[in-house]
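ok trying again, last paste got cut off:
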Amino acid sequence: AGWTFCIPSFMLACWRRANIAGTMSAMGTGAATIIGLYIAGFMKVGGNVGAVTSFRPFYPLNLDPVIWGMAASFVVGVTVTLVTAPPEESLVSKLFDAQSENTATA
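nice, full thing came through this time. structure:
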């Protein structure tokens, strides 16, 4: 489930509009998706893809659960971010804009 935290991390590092609600919901959704696919596989849902063990995840469309978790994380993170209030511009400016020598020390 840790891979799904990559999407919210990139959102915060690269997108000025990203906010806490979007990134937290992205983390929760991605982790829940992966955990849900492992539970479904444990309950013997799906085919015979993956390692032959008793704890095999379910592979929808033969894609690894990490792919589904990251996709769900991305969709929910972007959607929630766009429907909630953006972060304060003063905070975003401190994180993304180059500070002059005079304002950096203040």
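cool. The radius of gyration is 19 Å. The chain has a mean pLDDT of 86.
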